[in-house]
# Entry
Amino acid sequence: MWFGSAADLAEGASAFFTDAAAPLRNPDHQHLHSASIGFLWTNVSNAKKGRMVIGTAEPGAPQGAMGKWGRAKATLQVTDWFGIVPDFIITLDANWWLQASDAEAYALIEHELYHRAQDRDEYGAPKFNRQTGRPVFTMRGYDIEEFIGVVRHYGADAAGIRALIEAAEAEPEIAAVGIAQCCGTCRGAT
# Structure
């Protein structure tokens, strides 16, 4: 079992999704332009609630109840991987990645990026760290979480997923050809 830093993927995610001139730029990720994002590969199988987990996003700083030494060990491990403690870490299943299409791989990265949001203050304004002036990030839940059976029985409006249905029925904003044009593998880059 192993975990390894994927610095090239971190650079690629920024170049593809958050930079001003990114070919697959998504304004929904604009708040991440100044974020430090660490990417990890792993070969450790993971499942949650009976489903395969192929990616996760989590805060870069160690979370949860742990003693001073436990937190120090976890911080040291993160620093060994990335040279810093990033704002957040995205961990990806390397075995799944090897068989994924470009569209599946980019969709997974964007999915994980969507989990990170700039925190808001009590008035709804973007929150910033008073000492550093940098954005304060937080985890973001799913827009929609519903069972197919509920939608089948009661419909999209009752289940609160009409916007998802409309988005699914529309043409993709980024076609497969657009992905191929910015992908180093597809263009034959080394």
